[in-house]
Design brief:
Layout (H helix, E strand, L loop, with lengths): L2 H14 L8 H4 E18 L6 E8 L7 E9 L4 E4 L5 E9 L4 E17 L11 H6 L12 H11 L4 H13 L2 E3 L8 H4 E4 L1 E6 L1 H14 L4 E8 L4 E7 L3 H4 L9 E9 L3 E4 L12 E2 L3 E7 L12 E2 L4 E13 L1
Length: 330
């Protein structure tokens, strides 16, 4: 066959049978809603020491992600600097001075835009990410023990599949049916969150549910991590915590607090997709509401419990936290 004849044949074939391609970002997701929030944050610190304290206080900020853009409008006292931790989260450091018994407020205002989305499975069924990324996000950690024999057996029995998106969906369906919700002040880790009584159940709050999901996903080779922040009941809310009474409140804390943590999994071509099974008690793989505010992600370090308030002092005592959310849909 002559060269020009071969080239012509290839051109005709490409017109009749176009080469497969990955979907663009616009094709991979459908944006369902866009909500812009003005968020006010207040933190009350108390000096319970018998000496004057100059303290460095770490404040977690709303993050910039694929579906969230954030701006710091104001902060008092003014931030000393902005830093990034090992997991890529941006936070700020504020310096405050307090005499013995003094009460000091930190005030901040943010503007955050959140996009509700759903992935378009019709555009792509999902593929495995590169091996180096799989290795990084499927390792064992203190709260995500991928060598737990019980969880290994459950993961393969209930959720094993050839395609990563199918694993994510099967696992979410299994987890959401076994949630025995109870506010837990602390963190059990996946080793202690799953119990058996006639059938397996996941006892705890959003932290335990997320930890079990992430651990089982990592066991099956699916890159997984957690996101932490807030899940709002509506676009306009005021949430608060009195740190001196939360242990006495128990489940009643849910009446005035919306701190939350949920899993994310990495699937090509979508990237990191959210899996919030406690938003309506549904699997919600790649189905994400605009009532979420992300303060950070956990990949190897653990802030979902420690930074649930959004503020960590070094020597002062955090006594009260308040967030106001004023959101409007565009």
């Amino acid at each position: 066959m002559k060269a020009h004849t071969l080239i012509a044949g290839i051109v005709v074939a490409s017109l009749l049978f176009p080469l497969a391609r990955s979907p663009t970002a616009a094709e991979a997701y459908t944006v369902k809603a866009v909500v812009v929030y003005r968020i006010g944050a207040r933190f009350l610190l108390v000096n319970n020491n018998n000496f004057t304290v100059t303290d460095h206080v770490y404040v977690s900020l709303p993050q910039n992600t694929t579906f969230q853009t954030s701006k710091v409008i104001s902060m008092s006292p003014s931030p000393m600097r902005f830093l990034r931790d090992e997991d890529g989260n941006v936070y700020t450091v504020v310096q405050v001075a307090a005499e013995p018994g003094a009460r000091v407020w930190i005030n901040a205002t943010y503007v955050v835009e959140v996009k509700a989305y759903s992935i378009n499975e019709g555009a792509h069924s999902g593929e495995w990410p590169p091996l180096d990324l799989v290795r990084r996000y499927t390792s064992s950690t203190g709260y995500w023990n991928i060598y737990n024999a019980t969880l290994i057996g459950l993961a393969y029995k209930t959720s094993f599949a050839d395609r990563p998106l199918e694993i994510a969906k099967r696992l979410a369906e299994w987890v959401v049916r076994r949630v025995s919700y109870r506010v837990n002040f602390g963190r059990l880790g996946s080793d202690h969150a799953v119990s058996w009584w006639w059938d397996y159940s996941i006892t705890g709050d959003c932290v335990e549910v997320a930890d079990v999901y992430v651990t089982m996903a990592r066991i099956l080779g699916l890159p997984a991590r957690t996101a932490y922040g807030f899940l709002l009941k509506s676009y306009r809310e005021t949430y608060w915590l009195n740190m001196t009474t939360i242990l006495l409140e128990g489940d009643r804390i849910l009446e005035h607090w919306g701190g939350h943590i949920w899993p994310q999994v990495y699937v090509i071509p979508f990237g990191w997709i959210d899996v919030d099974m406690l938003d309506g008690l549904r699997p919600n793989v790649g189905v994400y509401s605009a009532r979420h505010i992300i303060l950070g992600v956990e990949e190897t370090k653990y802030y979902g419990s420690g930074l649930s308030s959004g503020c960590i002092p070094s020597y002062l005592t955090l006594q009260y936290v308040e967030y106001t959310f004023e959101g409007e849909e565009r």
